[in-house]
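Hey, resending since the last one bounced:
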Amino acid sequence: MPVAIITGASKGLGRALAEALAERGWDLVLDARTAGVLQETAAALAKYGTGVEALPGDVTDGAHRAGLVAAARGLGGVDLLVNNASALGAEPLVRLDALDLDGLRRALEVNVVAALGLIQEALPLLRESPAGAVIDVSSDAAAEAYETWGGYGASKAALDHLSAVLGEEEPGLRVWAVDPGDMGTDLYAAAVPDDGDPRPDPVSVVPAFLRLLEKRPASGRYGAPALLEQR
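The structure tokens again:
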């Protein structure tokens, strides 16, 4: 069985991707900060009969990251690492002139530093996999300038560049930064609570991620809408 570590997996895109992989026979190590919701997700995935390890914790904690990789090692290794856990830096989002610097530090710590820390922890096992891959979940705010999205966007832009460099340094792996596009998630609701417009369910973009795993294109930055158009 291939093994994936997915952070931020209790709901939203993380849960949707976890369910799609479990349905396809993947064993999973799932992370989220809220233990109860994470356990509910793990219980819901049990119907697929694959191994699911649910470890609540904060990805900024080095001991927690080591525990995620140790759990994956117990399932057989790491074939896929999905850095999906994210922090906004402010809830709701604010303009840069009002952005609390501790909030910005939190966004950078979760979205960039912790992501790299988990990659470093998992790299020995990823290198051993015949199809090792890293997916870093990005955002269009990393490439476009949107008012109030400056701190979050800056953190995702840094994650994009980290992904690009890792792809150069690890030619035996696939490293994909993926912009999933608009989604109706708790993260977006916290970012812009006054926006009542309907947005796509995260389940709708999962096929884009599955396409990457099936076709294994070169390391790089990809947008889910473009990947979906290629089906």
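Residues 118 and 136 are 11 Å apart (CA to CA).

Sorry for the duplicate.
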